[in-house]
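User: Now give one protein:

AI:
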Amino acid sequence: MTRIGITGGIGSGKSTVSRYWSSCFDVPLLDLDQICRDLLVQGEPGWQAMAKRFGNRFFRDDGSLDRTSLRAALFANSGFRQQVDDILHPLARLSMHERISTVAARVVLVEIPLLCEAGWHQDVDRIVLVYAGAATRIHRIAARDAITTHEAEQALAAQWSLEKKISWADHVVDNSGVWPATCLEIRHLGTLYS
């Protein structure tokens, strides 16, 4: 099995690229953001670990995670972000490997937003970086999440630059232009692993 790690930065379009590739070539796709969301459902291991470490700080009265306040704290405080990563990354990595082991396919796509930052390059066979310029990403984040430009800039600053991540990549998909051009790149790349 070839494990293709798809990464990029917030707002680069890695989820859109991953889903398109998966649908065009009928390739299984695992999404680490979804795995983390699953881990943070009330009662699940990530939720339990967060409650143990931070008490009720990021939980609503009904016990569900207050994702808005958590996201704001993550982007505003690098020390706090590291604490959360230390809690969730080992759980997410274990879940990722468990899910990969159940896939019966020659190729599996694994969307890992923080692949480089977390040092998970050994967990995949190829790395595909989805690229878009900072101005494009800031616009996308602000529109998608209904936040200010300043908040979008904070989100970008919380991650490594895409220029730094490029050195880790086996392939780069430029998603800064029109979508049909990106689709052609994905189709070309997909044929390499079909």
